[in-house]
Amino acid sequence: MTETNLYLTMKGTTEGIIVYLDDQCSFDQLLEELHKQLESDAIHQRTSIKVHTQNRLLDTWQQDEIRHLLNDQHSIGIKSFESNVISKEEARSWYDHLTLKPYVKTIRSGQELHENGDIFIIGDVNPGATVTASGSVFVLGQLRGIVHAGFPDGANEVVAASYMNPSQIRIADQLSRAPDYEVEGSQREFAFINQETSQIELDDLHNLQKIRPNLTDISERGL
User: What is the pTM of this model?
Assistant: First the structure.
């Protein structure tokens, strides 16, 4: 089902009714057309709809105006507001979260490194050092300190190192500590959360693509 009026188009989908609002007219014209269609019962008995503003980004007060018109005056709920565009603040946050942050240095004991997105360290992470990232952590060197990837809830992130012998690894809310006794580290490994057991496990680096095939897929890691 598709119904087109002057400034809005209504489409019936498997998820319900989506109302597409024209993105070229003024906001006042949109409200007037919405009011006209509601008065003519064009959206009669549509108890919950999605509102898609296409290439227009609504301010909070504009969303409130539409919500007041649909919900308060005509008892039509709004599932969500959707758009083809995002704000500058959202774009900056998205970019910051997905950008790889390189460091050519050794993170020494007592030092702490915190970043949004992925961290790529060309150097060592010494015992007593702490690295925290909202994304994954890659160490081209010896990892012997503390690393927290996927902070606070990125369960699909990983920790990879040329030499893996950390004192502690966290991924999202899962924790893995080094044993109390002395152990040798291992070459070219990565840590990840096994989705079946919800526990942190280690595997050879050459299996990273198989276990986390979407690790570098921006569409899978976006907002």
Answer: 0.67
